[in-house]
Design brief:
The protein is built from 11 helices and no strands. With 266 residues, it is mainly alpha-helical. The protein has one domain. Helix 3 runs antiparallel to helix 4 and helix 4 (70-98) runs antiparallel to helix 6 (112-138). The protein is globular. It starts with a helix and ends with a helix. 32% of the residues are buried.
Amino acid sequence: MISLTMFSSVWRYRGFVLGSIKREFQSKYRNSLLGAAWTVLNPLAMIVVYTVIFSQVMGNRLPGSGSPFAYSIYLCAGVLTWGLFAEITSRSQSVFLEHANLIKKLQFPRLCLPLIVVLNALINFAIIFGLFSVFLVLSGNFPGWIYAALLPVLLLQILFAIGLGMILGVLNVFFRDVGQFFTILLQFWFWFTPIVYPVATLPASVRELLVWNPMAAVVVAYQDILVRGQAPVWGSLLPVTVLGLGCCALGLQLFRKRAGEMVDEL
């Protein structure tokens, strides 16, 4: 009941949410000669670098695949997936601090702020991933109908990211070290996730440890779909699903109990 009340309040302020997303997108490229074109140029440059440098110049190959673009696709799938997760969690853990003046001056559902973070991140992800999908088509590596399986994986990823982000966001208001610690943790977490290296190249003892990394299953699911053209092992995503639901429930509970105190701490 509490959650439904929260979300209905957010829906009433949908104009505020959409306006905030628009303003943030515009301010990102204000005073720039190319403006929003950078939204396309930046990810396009990244895809070109990964393709040319890793596949053509360095001759990197993905074990078990003869395609010259396989490693580039593997790398892009992991990096783009991780980028969305990192953006949502990093922005969420500081979103209440960044909007302290707004929170103190205006009355609106504070839950709007994490939602704005997620929607902004999804817009950026949609642009980048759209370009990546075009590259897959043009290079003859589009996985076919299994591409649709990305949607449930994406939803699970967002569920986990926003749940974790909300917990961090609330805690960071009261304990500012949380944000600093998480920034460092993200760097270690990236390298503990099979993004740059294939899982098969790891020793068996290390592969067993990946079970404790919820993002490993998500990244591997993307790679299964985009690189191998096959459905992910859905059972491997069950732990991150449960963890995501738990994080969201805990995040909402923390937010509900500490919303009043947060205003005094900001």
